[in-house]
Amino acid sequence: MRKRVGLGVRALAVILGVFCGIPSCAAGGEPPPTLNVLVLYSAHPNETNDAGFLDSIETGVRARVRGPITFYQSYLTNRDDKSWEASYLESQAETFRRTYARTKLDLVITVSPQAADFALEYRNKMFPKVPIVFTQVGADKFEGQRFPGVTGVTIPLGVRETINLAMRLHPDTETVAIISGPDWDTLSVEHDELLRYGVKVADLIGPAGPDVLQQVSTLPPHTVVLFQLAPNLDRPEYKSEALLDLVARRFPTYSAWENDCLNHGCIGGAFGDHSKQYASVVEVVTRVLAGERPEDVPVVHDANFRFTADWRELQRWHISESALPAGSRVLYREPTFLERYEKYMVLATLLVALQALLVVGFLIQRARKRKAEAVLRESEKRFKVMADTTPALIWMCDAEGRVTYLNEQWLSFTGADPYATNRDAWSSHVHQDDLQGVMDILSRALKSQQPFSKEYRVRRADGVYRWMFDVASPRVNGDGSFAGFIGSAVDVSDRRMAQEALEKVSGQLIDAQERERSRLARELHDDICQRLAMLSLKIEKVSKSWGQGQSTVADQMEQIWKQCSELTGDVQALSHELHPSILDNLGLATAVRSYCREISEQNGVIVEFCSGDLPRRVPREVALSLFRVVQEALRNAVKHSGQKHFAVCLHEIGGQLELEVIDQGSGFDAAKSRTGRGLGLVSMAERIYHVNGTFHIESRPNTGTRVHARVPIAAESNARVDALN
Question: Which pLDDT band holds residue 725 (cuts at 50, 70, 90)?
């Protein structure tokens, strides 16, 4: 309709011009050319709270500039982009050059510090000699320097004013926690200001995530938080807004950044007056478009602050509005009953009593509905925050089995597109061998509407398939009808691998135990028992010879004595192998040295033992584990290395016992041995891991073998062992 009216007016003007003998544009000469203005953001306006910027200045600029104006909007990247490298910016500059190559730009407005830096760096490549007006930039951004063809409006940053407001509203504050990013440049200003109040300052530096929340949980009472944490672009699943909501529930929270503060649990802060800022931007833009050189238009430094507070947070922390500075702005105030239902009450007074009762009933019902909707929205918001921050992979489907929701963890785990509209594409990440089973159990569950669980493999973002344990429960609508399923999946690959390894080791231990028992039985039966039988026969023979007065009794007694000594030594060796009593009586170093000597004597080899200054007391479990490692390593070396010379070293280094068993023999492939069936290497490693130590073997064919173990022996560990003994 408006377009048709405009056409009619122009047609009437032409007709009048013809009849009057003058051109239709004689009154104003030639129409002015169309001005082209590019508004450049650092990210999409909807993601940086700058969506209303152009609307706020466009009307004012059009009203003050003669002629038509075309506004263009562009942005550098979106919130999830992590590329701010030079190569990326070069490609962006080339993209802008090609995009506006055929458009004569009269002005570029940058909205953010990043956009201003980008425009200044690449202006000669993208739009040479085009004036630039910057805004949404701190007052110190271009302090002491001017650029040709550049002017703008800085925004104030009320850090000191926000601190003063917080101290005014919380006079009993003892600690101020500053939650900030690692590259934030206002910490010195905040520290200097807080020094005046004599409070403790706790700097919580780091990106948004569970680490910062853990530090917040340790803050003492009477703490006030200053929040200035930007979104974590490296880990988008941790949102700074969600972290602010959690922090603000525990401590009074303030911020000098309005977009990151309000409506996220923050009480408030000192912010610039947007209406005055936009008016200043309109004034500067108008002067530049009118033909003034940007160098002649001074940069506007607007330092007008206005204290803004969230009414809901004032109520939560019991802060009276009268305590706020004069002229403060209070947002999100709940309207009073009279304000909300004023017109209904006016109408109700004009109706009869029955109509008044009906209206009251209707209002009550409406209020309940709004309250229920608010509770539902709050519940949905809490669910989304919880679902996106939980480590489990959460999904939902409708009554037909179509997936309607995948949480941030699921999208991050599988690398799926978070903006994809086809949520059923999740099946492409399930292993082909498991997909049919998953679909079958889901189909049966949709019919029975009963909970179910399933283990299946899912392809991770790096292409590796991981076993997931998925548990799902039915959902219901408000009327009780079946709405679908909600499920959560956790990665159980490590548990399955550990279970398989445990079953394998358990079987090996049983086999080893049976083999050891068989060996001991053979030793006792074939050696000890036979020798005892022979000794018994000799004793019987000697007894008979003694009775007959033969002269060889002394020789036979000497032989019996030697056999008894040998038998005693063999029994002691067998007992020593089962449990070294010398370890308990004389300590680890003496027991290892004695064992090295026994190996040397029994096998005709040379075992060198070296030890440093060892602690006076070594925990019994540590000593026994290291001794068993020496036993197993030396037995393997003597049996398989083909060498006659070995070395055993035992030292204390930095509160840890370090053991090395070295030979220069044939060696073996240590990597393949970990997947073999031999129990010796597994038992050595398990003994060391049992006492919180580290164990590894260095060996390759024909290069010898080095067995290395390191076990901590802290003082408190010794005290614990002494108490147990």
Answer: very low
